[in-house]
Amino acid sequence: MRDGEKTKKQLINELIKLREENTVMKEYLRVMDKKSKQAEVELINYRKHIKEMVIERSKLEKTNQQLKFEIAECKLAEKTLHESEAFYKGIINTAMDGFIILDLDTNIKEANPQANKMYGYTYEEFLKHNAKDMVHPDYHYLFKQFKKDMQEKGYFRAETVDIRKDGTAFNVDIKGVLFEYKGEKLILTINRDITDRKKVEKELIKANQQVTDILESITDAFFALDSKWRFTYFNQEAERIFKRNRKEVIGKNIWDEFPTYFESDYFKIFSKSMNDSVVVHTEGKGIFINKWVEIHVYPSNDGISVYYKDISERKKMEEALRLSEERFSKAFNYSPVSMSIYALDTKKYIAVNESWLKMYGYSSDEIIGHSGEDIKVWVEMDDRTNYVKDIEEKGFAQNFESRACKKSGEIFTVLVSGVAINLDGEKCVLTINIDITELKRFQKEISRLDRLSLIGEMAAGIAHEVRNPMTTVRGFLQMIGSKEDYVKYKEYHEIMIEELDRANSIINEFLSLARDKADNLKLQNLNSILETIYPLIKADATNSNKDVKIQITDVPNVLLNEKELRQLLLNLTRNGLEAMPSYGCLTIKTFADHEEVILLVQDEGNGIESEFLEKLGTPFFTTKPDGTGLGLAISYSIAKRHNAKIEVKSSPKGTSFYVRFKVPE
Q1: Whole-angstrom Cα distance, residue 119 to residue 108?
Q2: Is 491 exposed, middle or buried (0-12, 13-18, 19+ CB in 10 A)?
Q3: Which pLDDT tens digit goes with each residue over 232-261?
């Protein structure tokens, strides 16, 4: 029983133990199940991670392939870039324009060979400069606009005057553009030498202006038509004749603006020239003016040019000339005396003979139909008025002296006589002109030489007698002035000695006038003597707050007495300096003119009054309060001894003395 109970108890214990073990096992299985699930999650995550790594690796492989491809493309691009750089560099280096690269401060960073050649620098020298160094200072103001345009637009264009290394200037067309290279902003300029183009443009503008000036100054009406009969030019004489303003007709059709022309022979004339490209000339009565007209039509590449001239006066003159030739052919046309005929009412010339034309230098066409006032043959119009007054009141004027003007501008003196005549019912004046310029000059020269001769004889006669006592007085004054008792009178002694010296210099000037022949003439160069004495002349100018400049050119040697020429130069230059106010400038020039060597002394004074000009060179004539009137007289005497001439031209702006030396054969 006990064994049975024990067995049962043992079984219960074992059962309990089994339950406990079962519970433990369940717990173990639960834990294991939980860990299994965690492991499964971790496995899933690991698989997912592996998958992601596979995807990432695939991406990396793809990226690697792309990088390899991009590297290959970069290498190809780099190769292409190098080839492009070499290609463009070759173009730039062989370009005819200058290519210059600047930084933003306009320092030169690079330049092609043409730029170096254009500016005259080596490549290394060029890179040491700033662009401003190459531009003329007058154009430096463009740099402000240059920088502004670069900042706002990125490009710039202008025309400047640049300076080469040797200092010569030339015209340049500059184009600039902003670009970036290796992270740095730079400026590329293309410089083109346009000096020749500028010259051509200037000549073209000048030529066009000359053509315009000619067309506007001619007495013909002129207009131009294009191939569609439209006006392209209409000068002022055309405006007067056709009574139309050029602004109203330019660009308009001639047949619309002047329908009367279309219905006349002018249409045929103009069409013939236009269509057949031939020059057409005709004359007849005008449509717009009831006068004789002459028409010249010239074809061009794109139309015609028409000259429309009023020849009524010419027709009248032709008839008048025919009558004149019949009546006065021998007495008038072939006379060695200058003769002319003009209408008394209009004062216009009807005829002039060959002697008159030769005297005044005009052609017959320039004179016939014009008055003396029109062509300015009279210098003083008051003379003309008085001459005409005598003709109108008395019917003649005899030996009327006046000054006349040639076509060249040369002024000469004429003796005019005239008588009123009647030609075919028209009152006219027959005038005879005699050139007395040389006669007047000879008379003046003879008068001056007579005075010089008289003064010279007087000077030679009294010089010895006057000089001896003067020398004695001067010696005693010097001796007395050195004594102690007379020291207090030293100032007075010096004044007396200076006055004696001045009197002696005047006597020397008198003696200079007495000489009529030059001595010691040697073949010398005028420039050398001028350069030697220039410092003395410069000192005189400086002491009087004035300036002096010399302009010498190569001149041939002439026969000169250096001492006398120095005196001549000092006389003329000191006169010029005294004639000018402070800060005036005296100009001394030398130049050759045909067979003469010219010495010119030109001041900036107020000029010499015309009434005094004829008296220049006359002894004792002076306009200076303290002058002796001998300086110019001596100068004229020196010029005469050198077989030279002195000419004077004066105006309110100054006076010019021309000394003309003959070049020996």
Answers
A1: 13
A2: exposed
A3: 999 988 888 888 898 999 999 988 888 877
- 154 φ/ψ angles, rounded to the nearest 5 degrees: 85, 5
Closest CA to 552 of 576, 533, 577, 574: 533
**Of the residues 198, 230, 256, the one at which a domain ends:** 198
Stretch (H or E) spanning 242: helix 236-242
Same domain for 429 and 459, yes or no, is: no
Domain boundaries, position 499: 440-514
What does the pLDDT read at residue 491? Answer: 74
Answer whether residue 561 is part of any domain: yes
CATH number at residue 579: 3.30.565.10
Beta bridge partner(s), residue 188: 101, 177
- Summarize pLDDT for 254-310 with one digit per residue, the tens: 888 888 777 777 788 888 999 999 999 888 776 666 678 888 999 988 899 998 888
Q: Of 522, 599, 602, 611, nearest to 555 (Cα)? A: 599
**Can you tell me the distance from the alpha carbon of 315 to that of 332, in angstroms, rounded to the nearest whole number?**
21
Distant-in-sequence, close-in-space partners of 644: CB < 8 Å, separation ≥ 6: 659, 660, 661, 662
Is 76 a member of any domain? no
Q: What angle do CA 268, 270, 275 make, to 5 degrees?
A: 90
113 occurs within a structural domain: yes
Out of 20-29, 215-224, 505-514, give the one with best mean pLDDT: 215-224
Query: Are residues 356 and 268 both part of a single domain?
Result: no
Start-to-end CA span in the chain (Å): 190
Same domain, 527 and 657: yes
Residues 6 or more apart whose CB falls under 8 angstroms from that of 616 comprise 608, 632, 636, 648
Same domain, 237 and 184: no
Statement to judge: residues 637 and 542 lie in one domain: yes
User: Could you tell me if residue 280 is inside a domain?
Assistant: yes
How far apart, in Å, are the Cα atoms of 3 and each of 198, 227, 621? 146, 155, 192
Number of neighbours of residue 406 by Cβ within 10 angstroms = 14
Interatomic CA distance for residues 238 and 286, integer angstroms: 13
For residue 90, the model assigns a pLDDT of: 61
Q: What CATH code is carried by the domain that includes residue 192?
A: 3.30.450.20
Q: Which helix (H) or strand (E) holds 297?
A: strand 292-300
Structure tokens at 125: 């020298």
Q: Tell whether 225 and 271 lie within a shared domain.
A: yes
pLDDT of residue 1: 45
Which has the closest alpha carbon to 623: 650, 583, 584? 650
Question: For the chain, how many structural domains are there in total?
Answer: 6
633 & 546 share domain: yes
Looking at the fold, whether 555 and 646 belong to one and the same domain comes out as yes
The dihedral formed by the CA atoms of 113, 117, 119 and 125, expressed in degrees to the nearest 10: 60
Which uninterrupted H or E stretch holds 201? helix 195-217
- How far is 573 from 533, CA to CA, in rounded Å? 11
**Contact assessment for residue 580 and residue 603, using Cβ atoms and an 8 Å cutoff:** yes
C-alpha to C-alpha distance for 293 and 305, rounded to whole angstroms? 16
CA dihedral of 419, 425, 426, 432, whole degrees rounded to 10: -30
DSSP 305-335: EEEEEE-HHHHHHHHHHHHHHHHHIIIIIT-
